[in-house]
Amino acid sequence: MRQAKPLKHVPTPAYVIDIERLRQNLAILHDVSEKSGCRVLLAQKAFSAYDLYPLIGQYLDGTAASGIFEARLGHEYMPDGEVHVYSPAFRDEELADVLLLADHIVFNSFSQWTRFKPLVETFKREGRTHVSCGLRINPGYSEVAVEIYNPAARGSRLGLTLEAFRHGAETVGLEGLDGIHFHALCEDSAETLERTLDHVYSDFLPYMESWPGGLKWFNLGGGHHITRDDYNRPLLIDLLCDAKKRTSAAIYIEPGEAVALNAGVLVSTVLDVGQNAEHFAILDTSAVCHMPDVLEMPYRPRCRVHYADGGEADGRMPSEAAYAYHLGGPTCLAGDVIGQYAFPRPLTAGDRIVFFDMAIYTMVKTNTFNGMPLPAIVTQDGADIRVLQTFDYEDFRMRLGS
Ligand SMILES: Cc1ncc(COP(=O)(O)O)c(C=O)c1O
Fold first, then answer.
1. Is the C-beta atom of 144 inside 6 A of ligand 1?
2. Which ligand 1 atom sits nearest the alpha carbon of residue 225?
3. What is the pTM of this model?
4. Domains and CATH numbers, the chain
5. Residue of the CA atom closest to atom 7 of ligand 1
6. Which letter, b or e, does each residue of 240-274 get, where b requires 16 or more Cβ atoms within 10 Å of its Cβ?
7. What are the pLDDT digits (tens) for 89-125?
8. Which of 185, 196, 254 to mutate to test the pocket of ligand 1 (most atoms within 8 A of CB)?
């Protein structure tokens, strides 16, 4: 396996970002953009490794942020890219700062728009912002099976339902607004996007067609699994071209996962092995601190052992190999277990376990519960390995007091 040698030498735990794979993903996204004319933004909530923003900025058009901090990160590290900001609710003091950085702001409600419209207009009059504002709609349709990841679930706070939109359009009006945003997908196919767009058009197209001054932009959010092997990219390109034709607006998508899909691993070391009712191994990485989606979603990441005395093997289902272990973290949480995996030979302290697809929604979600050290951040570009960042006691301490 290509990563075997270098992974022996990185400090653990460590996120190792695969630059080659990142480039491949970015080339695919750039191709979609070229063929469809749509603009593609990096959703930073999934992947915010800003050392790589200069590379990402060569392929994508900018960044999508969830608030002032991500907006600032995108502005500082991808300075030539557009900065788009959406938040379910902005704080008063936050919005003034966002206005100075953002190209697009997406409001979640007519009440937020009404609250901030005077500030937007003042900043525009004074030449302090060139921002273009829009609203997030909720299509009321989604195929996301896991409820906590379903933005269009019944009762969702994310985006205006048709009823809320209609009421706002009649009472507040759409003057001063330029665009529409929706996000209702998660790891979804182009076919799912097509069905979702059918719902969007059937409910909202009349508004889009009669928008005061014309609709300037239409943002189809994230959740498009574009860089997955079986993703139907020709259909996506057709849908994006069709969206342009129907709305005459600039079309945007803001994928997160697709940018860094399979472009990173989490490397850990076995600290100890033991047996109670069953065999277990304790690693220097923790599910709850370093890969919380494993517990939150939950899901079972793929893994591979690199034995200290040489040789490698995939982690298999418990019945599929001779030696099965519950792989757990060194925290006190009983449930800090990544899963049960079987290997062809016993594990011993010093073996390394590599967990796959750990660039997205992991590095951005770490915490120091139990005083756990944060994983180092490493890049691998062929044989070139760089340790970008290591963390120590100070990173734990500074978040807890003066
Ligand atoms: C508004 C918005 N845009 C973009 C994304 C990125 O989605 P993904 O990483 O699934 O592509 C998300 C994810 O939650 C989101 O909420």
1. no
2. 11
3. 0.96
4. 4-16+264-358+366-397 (2.40.37.10), 37-260 (3.20.20.10)
5. 222
6. beebbebbebbbbbbbbbbbbbbbbbbbbbbeebe
7. 999 999 999 999 999 999 999 999 999 999 999 999 9
8. 254
